[in-house]
Design brief:
Layout: E1 9-12, E2 17-19, E3 28-33, H1 40-58, E4 61-67, H2 71-80, E5 86-89, H3 94-99
Parallel strand pairs: 3-4, 4-5
Antiparallel strand pairs: 1-2, 1-5
Length: 106
């Protein structure tokens, strides 16, 4: 097994505080990072999670997407593609850094 996932808090698409500690140890937590909403790759990835969310729930898993966008922008992305999971604002990149995710796309 790998290292334990870091715990973190963030603001979700509705402006609410979201805490990983509410999920860790209770569900499998799938945290994915995306650099640019409304782009081909990131949208495809989000929609794939959306389409598989029922299968993931059967496996006791919860999906959460993390990006540098503001909550109101996350909400637009969520509504536009009918995403059925939370999106989190990582304004300063601290969540990405905790997971070892690079902040720039080359």
């Amino acid at each position: 097994m790998g290292d334990p996932a870091p715990t973190f808090t963030a603001t979700d698409q509705d402006g609410h505080l979201w805490k990983s500690s509410d999920w860790i140890g209770k569900k499998y937590l799938i945290v994915y990072f995306y650099p640019a909403a409304m782009t081909g790759g990131c949208t495809k990835q989000a929609c794939a999670f959306r389409d598989d969310v029922d299968k993931l729930k059967l496996k006791d898993a919860v999906v959460v997407g993390v990006s540098g966008y503001a909550p109101e922008d996350l909400k637009v992305f969520q509504q536009t593609y009918e995403l059925n999971f939370d999106l989190l604002a990582d304004y300063n990149g601290m969540i990405a850094k905790a997971f070892g995710v690079p902040m720039t796309v080359s």
